[in-house]
């Protein structure tokens, strides 16, 4: 069982179209300790819809531990590829690999419920 976490999510008003030039980004911040936590890993991801395999390009906006950075990059990549949108993703606190899978599922369920 994982510890509770907080999610701050902004998404486009309308569901993004797959393989369309969606310019309004998803913004996601995940934290186990709340809004007063120092900013952890922060990554900007954008998908190249011109490529046949939806290549994702990323840039690091704020560094963190290697594991947290890898998890943040993975979540940003998954968001951008699934919805064909740019994404800003930040993860703060001690989130482990074991907590990442249920956390990701919850985030995607939250997004789906919003549409």
TrEMBL record:
Family matches, as InterPro entries: Psome_chaperone_3/4 (IPR018854)
Protein's name according to its UniProt entry: Uncharacterized protein
UniProt cross-references to Gene3D superfamilies, sorted A to Z: 3.30.230.100
Pfam family, one: POC3_POC4
Highest rank taxon of the organism: Eukaryota
